[in-house]
């Protein structure tokens, strides 16, 4: 089967998934997965055996984002939104300043009517270009919450802002939930590209194993993700099962 045909099957399978709340989804039973040595396993909703691992959920609230790990748990929504607004204001002022400096330094006499359409709103163009990765206030809030310093252009801040700004759209996404994952020597586990979130118990990957995703973005949230030189033992799995998943509702 070609990659295109596989993607089409997965999209059609997602359409058959029932829409459920995130709270109900997190209460589902989850199964462990083991990918043996030299094997390749594709976790997909198109496979009826694993269809129950997937669901379509609608993002309606800030708490929904936290439940799936898109926004850190315990971080106040007001703090995040104030930081985003502060960054918006800072970038707007910076864009205006850059345009003024550009105009002052230009000796050309090109008329507005001759300007390309892309330059019709120069402030907006400059703002949009800079704003993508410029999140100093939000990075500071996230740093204070996690205790780890994030730079103004850290991807964590960019992704957090993206999900918060998508909330008004009430976006429906596909999520997956499973138990412990063990990926053996030279083995590969491929997560369907339709999924935007993978919740797992614990993940062990042999030093020669791989965990991949066929889409553009996947949030993985697990108690731990570890590289192992040897395959995980049954005793280690049993100990891991005793620890509740970090994402499981209390």
Give the helices and strands, then pairings:
Layout: H1 3-16, E1 19-20, H2 22-25, E2 33-35, E3 40-43, E4 54-58, H3 62-67, H4 77-104, H5 122-131, H6 136-146, H7 155-166, E5 172-177, E6 181-183, E7 188-191, E8 195-199, E9 202-206, E10 210-213, E11 219-221, E12 224-228, H8 234-241
Parallel strand pairs: 1-4, 2-6, 3-7, 5-8, 6-9, 7-10, 8-11, 9-12
Antiparallel strand pairs: 4-5
Shape estimate: elongated
Largest sheet: 5 strands, mixed
Amino- and carboxy-terminal Cα gap: 42 Å
What is the gyration radius calculated from CA atoms? 22 Å
Structural class from helices and strands? alpha/beta
Multimeric state of these chains? single chain
Share in β-strands: 15-25%
Q: Which residues sit in consecutive blocks of at least 5 with pLDDT less than 50?
A: 109-120
- How many β strands by DSSP? 12
Overall pLDDT confidence: 85
Instruction: Please report the number of helical segments.
Output: 8
Helical fraction: 25-40%
Q: What letter string, H or E per element, gives the SSE order? A: HEHEEEHHHHHEEEEEEEEH
Main sheet: strand order: 1-4-5-8-11
């Amino acid at each position: 089967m070609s990659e295109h045909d596989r993607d089409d099957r997965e999209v059609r399978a997602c359409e058959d998934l029932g829409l459920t709340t995130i709270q109900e989804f997190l209460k589902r039973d989850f199964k462990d997965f083991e990918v043996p040595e030299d094997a390749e396993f594709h976790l997909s909703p198109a496979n009826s055996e694993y269809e129950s691992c997937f669901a379509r959920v609608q993002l309606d609230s800030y708490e929904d984002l936290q439940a799936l790990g898109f926004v850190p748990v315990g971080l106040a929504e007001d703090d995040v939104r104030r930081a985003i607004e502060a960054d918006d204001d800072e970038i707007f002022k910076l864009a205006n300043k850059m345009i003024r400096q550009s105009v002052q330094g230009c000796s050309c006499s090109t008329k507005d009517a001759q300007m390309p359409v892309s330059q019709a709103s120069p402030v907006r163009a400059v703002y949009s270009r800079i704003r993508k990765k410029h999140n100093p206030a939000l990075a500071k809030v996230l740093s204070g919450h996690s205790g780890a310093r994030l730079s103004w252009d850290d991807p964590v801040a960019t992704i957090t802002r993206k999900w918060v700004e998508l909330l008004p759209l009430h976006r429906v996404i596909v999520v997956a939930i499973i138990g412990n994952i063990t990926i053996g020597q030279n083995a590969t586990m491929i997560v369907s590209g339709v999924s935007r979130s993978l919740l797992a118990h614990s993940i062990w990957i042999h030093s020669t194993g791989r965990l991949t995703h066929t889409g553009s973005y996947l949030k993985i949230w697990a108690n731990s993700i570890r590289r192992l030189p040897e395959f995980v033992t049954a005793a280690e799995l049993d100990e891991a099962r005793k620890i509740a998943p970090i994402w499981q509702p209390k």
